[in-house]
Amino acid sequence: MICVLCYSCENDVYPCVAFENETARESITFIMGEDKPGKYYFTLAEEFYRWDEIEKTDRLVKSCRNFEDMYDFIRTQTPTNGLPWGTINVVLHGNVWRGLSLDLYHDGPRCTAKNMFAADQGNMFIPIQSTQIDSCSEIHFFGCGIGKNPILTKSIKGIFTLSNGSRPTIHLSADYVIFTSGGDQETPLKLKASYWPYIYKRGYRPSNHTITQSLRSDYPTSAVPWGEALENEEFNPHYTQRFHIPLSHIVLYDTGEERPAVKTETEKMEWIKTQEPILRQLEEVDIPMEKFTWTVYPFQHTLEDGRKVPAIKGIGMTTILCVLKPQS
């Protein structure tokens, strides 16, 4: 079987060759999180990649919990057969607005498009050698809609570029990713789902009628039974899932007199609008300020040396309600 995915294979230590057996290269899956109570995304993903007749992988790793851990595992762990990795699956949460639901490194910042771009441009990671991966390797990141963020996609491709200029085929899922069980199948199913988002201030969900009217206006060519979908929160031909996006910022002041008053709603919003870090976060997620519920309050912040200083914290919360249509 000829590898049809490679380019510039002549630069690789292990060039692409005709394999009689598709499993000549080892495959590996990273499960990059744990389920919250009542959720089974990672649990079903693990079962899928252990037992699915077609997509099960040779190895499954559950110990990595940030991007650097996963990257270093690929960089340092050589497959037992001496060939570079074949298929690498990375199962995580994420979305187009906030990138990957992972820390960049232990106790580091989140893997947003901005932070991943900075990591790529700053050469934060040691390049992986072609003994580990090459241009015939495939790396699949499974997270809901992350492939629709072009900066995130380009940055991850840059990070996985080898020192010789080649890189594996890298795919970030543009659709929702669903692992589901039930029915007659012995193992879970992996499905992708088209999705249509509706964004509103957390705690202020409009009526289903209002949401339906908005979705019909925003997506006039989509033949989706919006009203029916809004009534379902469990797996269905059309159903909904929702999650929240938080923004936050803390400002420290030398004295209580320097700390501005943030008692009224007007004072709170004036403070928010003067905070460049919050404005940058809003620009990064590309969601209007009015779609967030804002909480602003003064408090005493404790420094590392134990001293307390006056401070103000601002928190913004928005809800993303997604109508989903699973595809077989």
What would you say this structure looks like, in words?
- This protein is of the alpha/beta class and 328 residues long.
- It has two domains: 9-179, no CATH class; 193-328, no CATH class.
- Helices cover 23% and strands 28% of the residues.
- It has eight helices and 13 strands.
- It has helices at 41-51, 67-76, 113-121, 150-159, 208-218, 226-230, 265-273, 276-285; strands spanning 28-31, 59-61, 87-91, 94-95, 99-103, 110-111, 138-142, 169-172, 176-180, 189-201, 239-252, 293-302, 308-327.
- It has a five-stranded parallel β-sheet with strand order 2-1-3-7-8, sandwiched between helices. Strands 9, 10, 11, 12 and 13 form a five-stranded antiparallel β-sheet that branches. The protein has a three-stranded antiparallel β-sheet with strand order 4-5-6.
- Strand 4 and strand 5 form a beta hairpin.
- Helix 3 packs parallel to helix 4 (150-159).
- The two termini are 27 Å apart.
- Mean pLDDT is 92; it is low at 1-22.
Give a short summary of the structure.
The chain is α/β, with parallel strands linked by helices. The chain has helices at residues 41-51, 67-76, 113-121, 150-159, 208-218, 226-230, 265-273, 276-285, and strands spanning 28-31, 59-61, 87-91, 94-95, 99-103, 110-111, 138-142, 169-172, 176-180, 189-201, 239-252, 293-302, 308-327. The longest helix is centred in the first third of the chain and has 11 residues, at 41-51.
